[in-house]
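Translate sequence into structure tokens.
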Amino acid sequence: MESLAHDLRTMQRTPLHDSHVEHLRHIGEVVERKAGDVLFDLGDPMDTFYYVLDGEVEAVDAVTGERYGDGATLGPGQFAGEISLLTGGGSMLPMRLVQDSRLIAVPREALLEAMARVPEMSDIIVTVISARRRRLLESNDASLTLIGMDESKEIRAIAAFAARNRIPFRTPEDDPEEAHEVAEACSLDLKGPAVVFGKDRVIHDPTPRKVAQLFGLDLDLDEERTYDVLIVGGGPGGVAAGVYAGAEGLCALVVEDATIGGQAGTSSRIENYMGFPTGISGADLCWRGEVQAMKFGTRFAVPRRASAIERIGAGEGGPGFRVTLDDGTPVCARAIVVSTGVQYRRLPLDRLEEFEGAGAYYAATDVEARFCRGTEVVIVGGGNSAGQAAMFLSRYAKCVHVLIRGDSLADSMSTYLRDRLEADAGVAIHYNTEVEGLEGDDHLSAVRLKGDGAAELDGRIDTRALFIMVGAAPNTGWLDGLIETDAKGFVLTGDAVGRDSPFETSCDGIFAVGDVRAGSVKRVASAVGEGSVVISKVWEHVARVRDETGAAQAAE
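Result follows.
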């Protein structure tokens, strides 16, 4: 299966061409640094690109203070940095001079402009820094330490957020000696859950937002700035819109309230997306798109939720829109792309909210699989996401029970997935079967069943893992009635609201793509296509607004 990037250990390291280096000299400056100097400390904004002319630079393990991994050192002809360079986010590893060195220091904005003009140089830089992130993810030497995943659903929520946003983290519970060292450095009681940044910085009352702030993922947004387009939702449609908006020169911002990839990001393996014959996880697919969009200058802010929207006039930075985020931050834009997708519906079960994160889950990734080893697992749902989850979890669980309310999967699941589920000895499909109730104390311990298929299971399954992947509720409450929706809350577009474009809504300047749009095909490929195509109409609208604003200002 494809990963998010090349393997740094085996990839061909193509050096920057001499002409690329000369270009860097032109837009940067040659600086000298002494042995022991720190280029970036943990969490520092990566606002400078460093190319090594002479000397040596090393990556540093933020916990031990020693050199990170084997061979994590850079010499002449190599450069320091990773994906955070594209956004100005925080460094995930300190970088330190091993010996006196000469380097070319290039401001981040100048580097991005150069990458846009010199694609060959851009390809090399993006390939290398992406591979470095992959190496960080595959090691257990991250700067973020999560303690107590097995006991705390809050820590599990942070682990899920970090994993799906490709933030490296370590979990020392499997290594008692390491766990003791971390606890000792932070004066922690090993019995209590904790989040530690670096060697000894304990994050009190940790949340996904606080973790995002450590690395600058949530962005310190400029309230005075007006974006050409604000893309609300970071699923496949939103990421694709971000790629094309940046490529067309639009000033674009993507806000996502959970993780880049949206619901598609929770898919452990997508095999029917063109170009990936061996499959790719939804999170890796969308992360690749995110990097591509960032290369073109599109910004991403996570986790930031849109809570309200209003139209604004020319005197307020418009004409356009003001979207208020969940923390009260206003964001102004000339156009809006709604790509908020859908979320799985909550089953009408007593105590469900109590067990969410403590046995009841809405995604099946490596984080959730950790709690399924050797157990009975229950999946509710008959769509492709449920099928992919069943195949993935069958590698860990004693048995995966798939509960289907109807008597067939023919209308809801792709044939290749159906055939695999039926052939897998580790998967049992139960038709005409539903969950009736949940049991457990602090954690789910069993589900009670109803329906024709319940009898064969004696009406219950002892399980510590229930995956709910049924129904689709659109995320449109924040739109405050500004655009028309159907009876279920899906956004009406195109002919349904008298528009020429299938992605235009009833309000000029607001567009909708992906699963949130009424009548859309609920597939990753179609969402990507819609996000790509919509930008041509967004560009036309933005150009018109700019012209009208310019004419109004000239008349004054």
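Note: Residues 524-555 form the longest helix (32 residues).
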